[in-house]
Each structure stands twice: as C-alpha cells, then as structure tokens.
Amino acid sequence: MDVLALEAKTGNAGDSDKKSSSRPKPKPPKKAKRIVYFEVEIVDLKTKEKLLLLDKVEPTATVLDIKALFHKSYPKWYPARQSLQGKCLRDEEILQTLPVGTTASFYFSDLGPQLTWGTVFLTECVGPLIIYLMFYFHLPFIYSPKYDFTSSKHWVVHLACMCHSFHYIKRILETMFVHRISHGTMPLRNIFKNCGYYWCTAAWMAYYINHPLYTTPYYGQQQVNTGLYIFLFCQVGNFSIHVALRNLKQPGSKTKKIPYPTKNPFTWMFWLVSCPNYTYEVKQKISMCVCVCVCVSQLGSWIGFTLMTQCVPVAFFTIVGFIQMTVWAKGKHYSYLKEYRDYPTLRSSILPFIL
Questions:
Q1: Residue 277 near residue 238 (C-beta atoms within 8 A)
Q2: pTM (2 d.p.)
Q3: Which of 70, 146, 204, 335 gets the most CB atoms within 10 Å of its CB?
Q4: Model confidence at 200: pLDDT above 90
Q5: Which of helix, strand or coil describes residue 46?
C-alpha cells in the first residue's frame, strides 16, 4: 500500500511539473523607445544675431509650436507676425519631417502687424456699400444744394443701386458664412491699400451714376434688361462656385483638392477654367457697365467696351479688376499644375481657351 501511494504521489508531482512547464513564460517588459530631441536655434534674418536657443524640442512639434515657444520669450512677436525660414515653412509642418538634423537653425523675420483676412474682406465690402448709398440718396455737400435728398427720375439709376448693394451684401454674407480662408492673416498695411481701391472707385462710380444730369443708356430698356440678366446670372454662378470650393475643405483644414464640376450647372465652368469665380466676377462688372453706361453695345470685346463706353469710372474699375483677378487666377492655376500631376490640361486660368 505504501509503495502504491508513493508512486501516485510521484505521478501527481510529475503532472504538476509538466503543467507548470507548459505555461508560457511572461514576456520581459519592452524597453521604452528612446526619443531623440531636437535643438532649435532661431536667428535674426537681417542681423544674423542668435535670438533664442530651444533645447529638447520634441520631434513631433510643428512649426506653429516653435513659433509659440518663441512668442513666450518675445511677447511682441505673436505667431501670426513671425516668418521662420529654412525652406518655405508652413505652420502645420512637423519638425522631424523637415530636411534638418537634430540641430536646426531657423531664420526669423518680422512680418509686421497682422489682421485676419475676414476683417479685411468685411472692411473692403462695407465701405463701398455705405459710400454708394450716400451718393444715391444725394446727401448734402455732394451735388448742388438744390438736389439734396432728391431722387433720380431714371429707373436704371435705382436698378444700378440695387445691383451694387446686392453684390456687396452677398460678399459680406459669403465672408461670414461661406468662405473657408486658408491663410489666417495679412499685413495691416494691406487694409489701407485694399480699402483705398474699393472705397475710392465706389465713390467715383457712384458720383457719375447718381448724378442729377445722368443720361440713360443709348439703347434704352433693352440694354438695361440685358445687363440685368447677365448680372443676376453671374451672381448665382459666382455664389455656386464659392459653395463648391467651400465643400472641398473641412473646417480648419488647409488640405487642397482639385475642384471639379458638381450637379449644379453653374459649376460646369470648372471643365474649362481653374477660377470660374473670377470669370463670373468679371462678367458681373461688365454687366453693371452695360446697365449704367452710355453707348455700351458689346459684351465680348474688351477693346470695343473701352472705346465705346462713356462711363469712365466703371470701365476703369472693370479693367483694373480684370487685370488683378487674372494675376490671381494665373497664380492659382500654376499652383494646381505644380501640385497635381493629373490636373485637367483643358483648363485655362480665367477665360476659356484664351487666358
């Protein structure tokens, strides 16, 4: 009996040894991954003076994070006012992805006081809206005293005021609720340049259009109606393009995408041009000239328009606006071509097959 009990005991012990040996051994704890910190040196671009040395900057830090650290040492230079140059650096770029070693040098330059783009756009648009209405209502000290607070007898003058006001109210609402602006700020000096252009040309146009001696278009109501239809058509087209561009961007995102036509017929201009919003804008200005100018009988020819119109301020505003928007459109078009290899080759910048 004792022998049997002893054998059973040794058998149980052997089974327990086998069970314990079959259990997986716990894995040794993983060694913590070593983080390689960066040393960032910020140097004044003009004087080459070392302004700041940031030690132990995390490799996942963005350029904006570095600007924020720099701002702590130099409170007068907030991030929007800083330009850090190694290559052309965007705020969202990550330090470890830049072509620099663990010791990086960035050259700082002061961009000057900044304003948000939204503020500049709103100021640009509110000014012409108010200035035009001052001339429309014939406020004192604008025309002869006998015309103070009088109303024009020509229907086209009232129609031009409605079109002008509608255009700028639309722009204000789009700035507030539609546009998603990639760039956060622009230099403060730009507001004086931009507002000077828009406000002065608005006053120049309004003076002649609302003048008591204003004469109606040569071809009468037919010319006025043609201009009005083109104006309204292009307003809807311009708004449709802005909505389509808005839908390409997520809130807060700066990622670019190729714009394509949607089910909205007004967006089909994307098949032919890169910036149809500018194309519609130019046509709006031409149509406003047709509504309010004398002897404008052609829409398609800029040379004919310039020679035939007698409303010099509107012609000037249209031509200068067209030149500026062409520069912007060409810049955007070349940016698309550079960034996307599969960008549609049929598209022009602003005028289909021409420009």
A1: yes
A2: 0.76
A3: 70
A4: yes
A5: coil
